[in-house]
Amino acid sequence: MMPELITEMRTDFLDPDNATVREFMVVPSLKVSLHGKGRLLLYAEDVHDDLRGKVAVLHNHGWIHDVSVGTLPRYRIGEEFVQLVCAHRSKVT
Fold first, then answer.
1. Phi, psi dihedrals of residue 2, rounded to the nearest 5°
2. pLDDT band at 81, cuts 50/70/90?
3. What is the spatial distance between Cα 93 and Cα 89, in angstroms, rounded to a whole number?
4. Cβ neighbours for 23, distance < 8 A, ≥ 6 positions apart
5. What's the sign of the alpha-carbon dihedral 38, 17, 21, 8?
6. Would you state the pLDDT for residue 36?
7. Alpha helices in the chain (DSSP H)
8. Domain covering 3-87, topology
9. What's the rounded Cα separation, in Å, for the pair 58 and 75?
10. What residue segments make up the domains of the chain, in order of their start?
């Protein structure tokens, strides 16, 4: 359903700089400037088709939890999902 998103997430999770990062925001574009939001991952709607729909699928399955406070959707990622994604070997390059 979403190989490009899972591949990007896997790359992010395996980056040593993100070893403890377990939150992400859905942004319209990576050109969005966020100040004071803490360390988190960003996934852009102009990069992934129907990103909010894909995120809704992950949320409905309990892999992520909505922790939004402002207008941009923010999610906490479950550790089990991180482990599953890191073990995934995508064919997408």
1. -150, 55
2. very high
3. 11
4. 38, 40, 41, 67, 74, 75, 76, 77
5. positive
6. 58
7. 3-14, 51-60, 79-87
8. Arc Repressor Mutant, subunit A (1.10.10)
9. 10
10. 3-87
What angle (nearest 5°) sits at the alpha carbon of residue 27, between those of residues 26 and 33? Answer: 130
State how far the Cα of 70 lies from the Cα of 62, in Å rounded to an integer.
Answer: 21
**Tens digit of pLDDT for each residue in 52-80?**
999 999 999 999 999 998 888 999 999 99
B/e letters for 39-57, b = 16+ CB within 10 Å, e = fewer, are ebbbbbeeebeebeebbee
CA distance 33 to 12: 19
Whole-model pTM? 0.86
Question: How far is the CA of 21 from the CAs of 31, 51, 75, 92, in angstroms?
Answer: 20, 20, 11, 24
